[in-house]
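Let's do one together. I've listed all components of the complex below, 1019 residues spread over two lines.
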Amino acid sequence: MNALLLQFLSGLSHAMILFLIASGLSLIFGVTRTINFAHGSFFMLAAYLTTTLGATLPLGDGSFYVGALLASIAVAILGGLVEVCFLRRVYRAPELYQLLLTFALVLIIGDAVRFWWGPENRIGIRPAGLAGSVSILGQPFPTYDLAVLALGPVVAGGLWVALHRTRWGILVRAAASDREMVGALGVNQAWLFTSAFVAGSWLAGLAGALQVPRQPLTTVMDAGIIVEAFVVVVIGGMGNVFGALLGAVLIGVLQSLGILWLPRELHLVLVFLLMAAVLIIRPWGLVGSPPTALPVAGGGPGAPLRGVHLPRGATACVALLLLLVPLAVPPFVLLLLVEILAFALFAGSLQFLVGSGGLLSFGHAAYFGLGAYGAAFLLKQAGLPMLVALALAPLCAAAAALLFGFFCVRLTGISFAMLTLACAQIAYATVQQWYDVTGGDNGILGIWPAPYLASPMRYYYLALLVSAGGLWLLSRIGASPFGLTLEATRDHAPRCEALGITVRAQHLLAFVVAGGFAGLGGALFVFLKGSAFPDYLSVSMSVQSLVMVLLGGVHALAGAPAGAALFTGLDTVITRYTDYWQAVLGGVLLLVVLVFPSGLMGFLRSCGAREGESRG
Amino acid sequence: MRTAILALVLAASLLMHPAGGAAQGPILIGEINSYSGIAAGFTQPYRQAVEMAVDEVNAGGGLLGRKVEVRFRDDKGNPAEAIKHAQELVTGERVNLLAGTYLSNVGLAVSDFAKQQKVLFVAAEPLSEALTWSQGHRYVFRVRPNTHTQGRVLAERAARLPYRKWAVIGPNYEYGRRAWETFWARLRELKPEVQVVGEHWPQLAKLEPGGYVTALLSQQPEAVYVSLFGSDWLAFAREAGKRGLFQKMFVVGILLGEPEYMDPLKLEAPEGMLVTGYPWYDIQTPAHQAFVTKFTQRTGRSPVMGALVGYVTFLSAFEAIRKAQDTDTERVVSAMESLRVATPIGPILFRPFDHQSTMGPWVGTTKLDPVRGGGIMTGWEYVPAEKVLPSEAEVRRMREAAK
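Okay, and this is what the predicted structure of the assembly comes out as:
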């Protein structure tokens, strides 16, 4: 019994930190509808700032506390600057581009921290006066954790007062439930957005500062916390601060008690299983309510997938170029092009899902990775010829997509995205821990193309055939009656239901198709790399595919391949010249978002359209 | 798409056309390692030591009368990225051999590439046993003692201790689990009465230590085996220190005596743990002291395990080329089989049948050193790996089983 109580307390103090960061995320989402990936970076930045300030401020025992406060304020100011300088410019752009922008900030802040503080792990400073422990039920319990436990409810109470008893709070809540109406009533939205962003960033900063005595500082702590914070927000209900508290306590306590009871296989996915269960039962979170305006993926209603109006000969020229390239470039460039072709298919399938279906997926790498594993398994264990393995691999991915999709398509918007993330994590954990079949972390090795396809040139032509063929098929599917129906469900689901279209069935079919093509991309990829690892199913792979789609343009036909080429090419070239490739890549992404807010191909298309108008 | 690919291809073909390859150009070594991501703190000193080894060999006139150059590439902790670099280094830069890698999965991926392309790969840091055993092949060699060696050395020491009730905490990751399995298998052989009272496998790099320390304290084992690494270990050490765990149970820690794990903790480093590590401050041989002096003067920091491994890895590669009197892969590989290398820590041998070096771990007990302001190892001994490595027959069995 005592053990249980202590376990409970340990979980609860972690829950308070989770609550702080999640409530900030929720506040920002509620008002600005921005999915702020950079929230974890603010958390990390505040932690590093607190360590430096706490060690250098000449305030004796008070250094840590004053340092923590100053660090959180500094991060709040930075958040305000980010909102004013960058985000404000893209609110009018399709909403997903804000996501790309915050991802660019993640890269830049991550490298800035590495540059200033170095890559070594550091242990945080101890809080003067609270560094020891007190005895609870015969076991020592850290005093500082008790202090954090007490502070959590104080901040929650303060937030409640700010949101329910001040004019600012009323406006914030009004904006969270109906942003357009608040604007129509003459409220200065710019000011409201900035203030919400500052307040949210401050909460992230406070969480980071308070975590310093409990967690070592690493340059990857941003990625560690952000996913968990999202899960908390989604479990509680997006935009609902009380929900964040409930979600944080649930996750913190469950994780802590799980240490005693759950088998190790479940630890990796515990929070995702919980989130999946909550989303399936209550799609808008435990205390959330359905938003009046769903975040619409891409360009909003009425944006069919369209081609770019290039000069007539251009397509033929590019096709010829792609066919002749092997004669002119060294083998390594060919292999890089194969990687781009595999990613083009991967991103293209996601683009189909997001663009035509309006279904934003945060877990698309699961199908890419399962396609890779499927090919590896068919080749190595089943002993099938390489081309057969390549052809059958998409079926493995599509089967997984059917299974997961069955649950996911019940939801829409951000809930759908988070459930796909949960499914991807479940798939990842299965692959990583099912040693007998997948080899676990050691992966499956020796998956090289058959000897007659092994030369870079031959494999390139195979990849070109498969990838171009796959993308062509996808575009035909997009233009087919099924694709058009899908676009109709994206733009107005209730009207489609009234017409007798089963929206869920359409979405499920789209999910399976997208999963299958992603799997084909994964199979191309695995024969290029020669081995399959759980990393192929990771969150960062999913994010990467999304970045490629957004970079190229969601609603342009050539968006995904262009995005894949640009991202992979940039990444490869930058990495060769600097250790700080993340910052440079982030800077380029930032520039792209600010200059071409509808993606590269979207930009080219609008140029073409303008030209057409002036001619007409 | 078209414009982008066109631009890319043009840019790439300008940038990446192989410049070298001529017989009398420099000897090129492709170095792939995790210079960003969770291993970045470890690989920085590694790289400094590699650069030191290269500068030294060039100052002495190079190898076979040619200069040595290293092409460093960041794998970002990702095996697919590492393969991309390996392909570029081998087909573009035309390097003579590949070296490096930190994470086991990255090491395995590059090793498989080396096998397929018939390129020499000298693995530096990855600890997975599979690399030289179940997945071993002609073209891969490994410098560092693997989880099997480290776990067995610890088990032999732990068996002399009176503890019977054991618990374990390690990352839910190949390295963490194998480190425990080899340790436990050997301990049970030597001392059949031992039993496990608690197993904890938190997610890698995401340890929230409070709950785990509470659970360990409630389970009351007499000793706990720790295979945590990186930030997980730091988080655990602080929380366990605050709650007096180190006073209540004996701790055995794989690698935890390495400066990489001890130094960040400063005076919070736990005392009295049985660990493998690298007591560079106490290794008094002239060769090692020369290494310490050179490294410290060059970088302004004290050496860590990564630095030693980097230095030894490149010394080994140089020695193999010298012995082969050629850079042809087949001849260098043949030269490296049963190659003896004089290193700062004495001679090591690359075993001909599994290509594992006989570099061993140091095993000892941790203690605080107020003068240095951190934890050190005392009562240590160096265990050459030949004492615990499996025989040729056993290696052959493992390779057969994997087929």
